[in-house]
Amino acid sequence: MRKKLNLISIFLFFFFVILFWIAGTNYIEAKSYTIENMDIEATVQKNGTVSIKQTLTYHFSGSYNGIYITIPYQSTPITEEEVSLHSIIPDNLYNATNVDNISVSEILDSNSLKNYLKVSFASIGDNHVYKVQKDSSIFTIQVFAPANNTKKTFQIQYDLTNLCVKHKDVGELYYNFIGGKWDTDIQNLNIDVFLPENNSELMVWGHGPSQGTSKIVNQNQVNFSIRDVKKGQYVAGRVLFDLSNISDSTKTSNLVAKNIILEDEEAVLHRQRQKDQFTFAVVIFAIVLLFYWFILLWIFERDKKYPISNLDPEKLFQKYNPMVAGCIQGGRDILARDLIAVILNLIEKKQILLELIPTATGKENYLYMIQKNPETEILLDPSERYVYDWIFGGKEKINLNNRLKEISKEAKANQKFKELNHIVETQVYEANANKKTPTILRVFNWFVFVIAVIVILRHIAFNGVELFDSGLLEFTVTLIPYIFVLFPIILLLFYLPLQLIISLRHKINKTIQRFTGKRLVTTTVAILLIFAVIITLTAFLADDKYLIADELLLCIATILVLTDNLMLKNKVTAIEDFSKLNALKDYIEEYSLLEEKDVEQVTLWGKYLAYAVSFGVSEKIIKRIKELHLDDDIEGLLNNEFFSNVLSSGFSDFYLYASLDRRFLKSYRSGMGKLITSYGSGSSSGGHSRGSGGGFSGGGRFFWWWRSPVDGGGAF
Fold it and tell me: Are 442 and 427 in a shared domain?
């Protein structure tokens, strides 16, 4: 008892830790900032230097100490993916030699400027100062300007020296104005490039988000304008102009470059068209697979029901027990409700003897005892025999209610259910019903699935995604020690979504099984729901919408390989019985609505109730039985609250305890409790305290500046 209380205490402790952590996370998320507007004015100088005036309007929610931006000057201005002819025009031609003449100011409400002072050292809380850190390829400007739930507009000016390239025939400015390291979205971005000395035609190209526009304003100005630049996206501009604009420049390429650049940009457009065409091809592939799946359903799942004029239920009762009948009628595997159907049928046939024993105590008026009937055991077919032995569990006489509560909690319940299903499959196959799709076809479908996965991987790689990211691997390695320390909390965090997913799956299965017991339908719906969530999240959160096409293809390919083996078709010799069993189902449903005098003239309960349970249409008959108040043991059984719930739910408690995912969750919970207990018992109150430290909210991005020197920014 004490151990149980300790476990509960530890669980509650972690629960409140997580609760406060979530509350803290929500608080942190509430503290945020956005860049409402960013205006960049880039003026080309005679010596090839570009003077930048960058005006940024920040909206701070919460308390911040200032902002920072990074300016690369020794980096490729755009990803190699976008421009493919770098072997002709060397990358280093697009580097600046330095960042010079840096100044920072703030635009006040009165539109006046408040100039900031450059310092070599500053600390949190300082105001109206900035400091600059220069590395081998990047400048970092850190601006100290405390802000709390307000807007601030900063103006940062600097020169990128010797940035423009002097070719033999044209001058070129090619610069990544917005790199991939900005920590927040930019709502409105406007970039103007001025060429005061230009006297000839301009040519301009923009690279980045597809919603951007680039245009020539006049002979001396070009403009790039983009709304909603997402975090991590880049915006680059390329301008060709008259050589007179950079007549004093010393950076020369010795190339006749105009045609090279035109071919280069045409290659970019061609690449984008290829990406669009590839994405379109992925969608077409997905649609073709979907139609192929429908064709398989039409061929291997659709059975025609012939009208039956002379139905003889007694012959069907003799030929098929309720479990086998339900599997043929529904084209399905066994369900938990089939166990109840077989028990009811064996009681009706007196192969199990039911005895209602009055009781003076407890919630129930009777004990519902069942007993073996050794004289009739020889008459049991294989599936009936398995249920018979399973339900009695080696005993001669048992309490039915208690046994039904216990049976699903047995350690081997799931295994026994699968063994029983295999026995029923054999019986159904012998009747030439529920034949599965040919093995050669299932092998072909797996081949198609592999092809689909290869197409998806090639499509992702074609869109410029590194399928192996060494940075991510390094980051994962750094996390490993923390994962071990926080392992109990991680287990607990995963338990909650697992519980939710498994509960949702069982509720979906239960709902579907009210209409059909087919695993084909259940599996298909489950896969569709999972991918619907994934695709929705991609649509709202991911920048790369082409991934939706990949997810759609993967969804359909997964449905194909996971449901082809669940498509069940009857051979010609079984079609007649299939039609008769479906007619029997309809007959039972209609028969339950007959007048009382008509119902009493036939032996309805024992002969039809068990099959109604397996067919999933027992509710009407149960209602009629209770209304007629017949003196019958089965009626007494149905009046039992527990047994009535078992019938109405299709014995869903069996899935609650016996299904593989529920057992996994139980083991997970048990293991988690033991682990938390061991952590709790192993902890001690002694030890040395350790110092703490902090940094800018840009955080770990600092470590990547050395590897990927593109411009970026954030707040701290």
Answer: no
Q: How far is CA 537 from CA 86, 232, 358, 393, 400, in A?
A: 37, 18, 58, 49, 48
Q: What letter would DSSP give residue 120? A: S
Residues 537 and 641 placed together within one structural domain of the fold = no
pLDDT of amino acid 72: 75
Residues 424, 449, single domain; the answer is no
Q: How many folded domains does the chain comprise?
A: 3
Half-sphere exposure of 266 (CA within 13 A, CB side): 6
What pLDDT is attached to residue 351? 92
Do 558 and 591 lie in one domain? The reply is no
480 is a domain residue:
yes
Residue 238's DSSP bridge partners are 174, 205
Instruction: Supply the angle between the helices 487-513 and 660-682 in degrees, to the nearest 10.
Output: 160
Predicted structure pTM score: 0.61
C-alpha to C-alpha distances, 1 to 5, 7, 8, 674, nearest whole angstrom: 6, 10, 11, 15
Strand partners, 151: 59
Per-residue buried b or exposed e for 165-195, using 16+ beta carbons within 10 Å of the residue's own CB: bbbeebbbbbbbbbbebbbbebeebebbbbb
Return the C-alpha torsion angle 411, 412, 417, 418, nearest 10.
130
In a domain, 549, yes or no: yes
**DSSP class of 636:** H
Closest CA to 226 of 193, 273, 186: 186
Q: Which residue, among 203, 137, 207, 155, has the nearest Cα to 176 in the 3D structure?
A: 207
Token pair belonging to 66: 């200032």
Q: Where are the alpha helices (DSSP H) in 181-321?
A: 258-300, 313-319
Residue with tokens 């991918």: 531
Domain encompassing residue 648: 313-433+574-658
Residues 464 and 536 in one domain: yes
Domain end, chosen from 536, 566, 596, is at 566
Angle between helix 618-628 and 641-649 (nearest 10): 150
User: Can you give the pLDDT at residue 283?
Assistant: 94
Whether 485 is covered by a domain: the verdict is yes
- Domain final position from 541, 566, 591: 566
Q: Which amino acid is at 498?
A: L
**Do both 207 and 61 map to the same domain?**
yes
For residues 550 and 595, state if they share a domain.
Answer: no
Q: Is residue 17 part of a domain?
A: no
320, 321, 324, 325: CA torsion to nearest 10: 70
Are both 182 and 217 inside the same structural domain? Answer: yes
Averages of pLDDT over each 10 residues, the chain, 716 residues: 42 48 49 87 93 91 86 57 55 84 88 88 87 82 89 92 91 84 85 89 85 88 89 85 90 89 84 89 95 89 73 88 90 87 90 82 73 92 94 91 86 87 91 86 93 92 66 58 58 60 60 59 80 84 81 94 83 84 84 55 67 84 67 67 78 69 54 53 38 29 30 64
Do 547 and 534 contact (CB within 8 A), yes or no? no
